[in-house]
């Protein structure tokens, strides 16, 4: 154990790993990050950050860079797939900021990753270091005894390292999760998506290009939002099917024209949008049954490793940021309390704080998936009436302050 507390090894320098490292540093705790990729690079096109995360990122001093890099949508609009009529519309911008204490921002993933990576720096970031396994000697020194740590990380190149605590921030195919649980929890949703970035000028028919919008139709929907000051739009086009996902990975090559064929007959703005970017691979959309445990001994999970979810509330990355800050607060509480048992308490507290909330978001996103693909008819009309109360219905997602919840739990 170093002078500043336990020696924490974070596996993965994605959104969760980098946010956790920054949140630990802000609390005076050291961490080392091990990332399999040889460089920090973009995964996917863009991400929408909501107030439950932007508020936390602002406390890490990242608000100005994020606001400069991203774009704040003007409204949240739901539209009819064919005639484009506004079914429901709610302001986002300033009124959202005032209500939830942080902005809603669309941002290029590469820009978000760069902002997090620059804030952390290169010193304690080990690139090209794939973790192949985690083992533990529970009788070894823990965070209070500290002679190098009781957790052993094994790397794919044969090297190894020791730590007091290993955090699996290594995404949906987590290697650290294999240490924590043998549950196989991913569930294919029966839907798949295509993603792209399109310049504003390629979509002359698009109404309200500065808004975040859902276009809902039979067996498909399109979500899009602006991601920079140039008006570039990020889209996720989701279709029902294929019935089974037989690929080993979550991405599959799609035949030329497959995406446009699925949206035949849709509003011209959607056709312009989908034609305005090269057709992406097809992403199988998977949810996850809740894990029975998020930690074992001194190995713990954050982000997609613990709770991958469907993207329909745009919450995967936002919940990951919440996890990271919560875990940092719980570990800071343990350091202040002192003693090895304090870390057992901290990990249990972290799980308790995060499991119920992420489960609720996972479940809600799964339900939303079906509602977005209803054919025109009475069920779609019932859904459309319900959209009038979206801000009230989903305020619980955006209003949550994970740091405050953790502080209250640590103090209790
Ligand atoms: C189509 C789609 C759209 C989405 N849109 C949104 C959105 O708008 N808003 C939102 O909030 N979320 C969205 N998400 C979800 C979001 O992308 C994830 O929830 C988020 O990236 C999870 O962060 P993470 O840090 O847990 O994992 P990741 O960001 O996946 O990072 C994991 C890191 O670990 C590294 N790694 C993996 N294995 C190892 C290993 N063995 N050793 C070392 N390093 C390793 C990886 O290289 C990677 O850098 C979307 C997801 C999808 C599929």
From TrEMBL:
It holds the Pfam family FAD_binding_3. InterPro entries: FAD-bd, FAD-dep_Monooxygenase_BioMet, FAD/NAD-bd_sf. It comes from the Bacteria. Keywords: FAD, Flavoprotein, Monooxygenase, Oxidoreductase. SUPFAM superfamilies: FAD-linked reductases, C-terminal domain, FAD/NAD(P)-binding domain. Its cofactor is FAD. Residues 8-363 form the FAD-binding domain. This is FAD-binding domain-containing protein.
């Amino acid at each position: 154990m170093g002078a500043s507390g336990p020696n924490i090894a974070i596996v993965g320098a994605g959104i969760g790993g980098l946010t956790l490292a920054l949140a630990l540093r802000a609390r005076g705790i050291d961490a080392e990050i091990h990332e399999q990729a040889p460089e920090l690079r973009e995964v996917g096109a863009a991400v929408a950050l909501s107030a439950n995360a932007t508020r936390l990122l602002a406390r890490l001093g990242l608000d100005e860079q994020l606001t400069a890099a991203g774009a704040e949508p003007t409204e949240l609009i739901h539209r009819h797939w064919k005639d484009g009529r506004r079914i429901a519309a709610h302001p986002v911008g300033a009124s959202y900021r005032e209500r939830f204490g942080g902005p809603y921002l669309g941002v290029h993933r590469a820009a978000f990753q760069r902002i997090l990576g620059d804030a952390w720096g290169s010193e304690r970031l080990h690139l090209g270091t794939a973790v192949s396994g985690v083992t533990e000697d529970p009788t070894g020194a823990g965070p209070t005894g500290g002679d190098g740590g009781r957790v052993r990380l094994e790397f794919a190149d044969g090297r190894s390292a020791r730590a007091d605590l290993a955090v699996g921030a290594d995404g949906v195919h987590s290697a650290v999760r294999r240490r924590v649980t043998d549950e196989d929890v991913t569930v294919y949703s029966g839907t798949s998506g295509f993603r792209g970035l399109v310049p504003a000028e390629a979509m002359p028919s698009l109404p309200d290009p500065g808004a975040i919008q859902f276009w809902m139709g039979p067996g498909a929907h399109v979500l899009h939002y602006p991601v920079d000051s140039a008006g570039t739009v990020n889209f996720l086009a989701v279709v029902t099917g294929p019935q089974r996902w037989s690929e080993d990975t979550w991405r599959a090559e799609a035949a030329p024209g497959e995406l446009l064929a699925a949206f035949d007959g849709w509003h011209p703005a959607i056709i312009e949008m989908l034609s305005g970017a090269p057709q992406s691979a097809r992403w199988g959309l998977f949810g996850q049954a809740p894990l029975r445990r998020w930690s074992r001994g001194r190995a713990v999970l954050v982000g997609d490793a613990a709770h991958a979810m469907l993207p329909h509330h745009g919450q995967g990355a936002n919940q990951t940021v919440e996890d990271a800050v919560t875990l940092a607060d719980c570990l800071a509480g343990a350091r202040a309390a002192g003693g090895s048992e304090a870390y057992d308490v901290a990990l249990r507290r972290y799980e308790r704080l995060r499991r119920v909330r992420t489960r609720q978001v996972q479940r809600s996103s799964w339900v939303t998936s079906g509602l977005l693909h209803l054919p025109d008819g009475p069920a779609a009309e019932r859904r459309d009436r319900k959209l009038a109360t979206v801000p009230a219905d989903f305020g619980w997602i955006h209003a949550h302050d994970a740091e405050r919840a953790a502080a209250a739990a640590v103090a209790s």
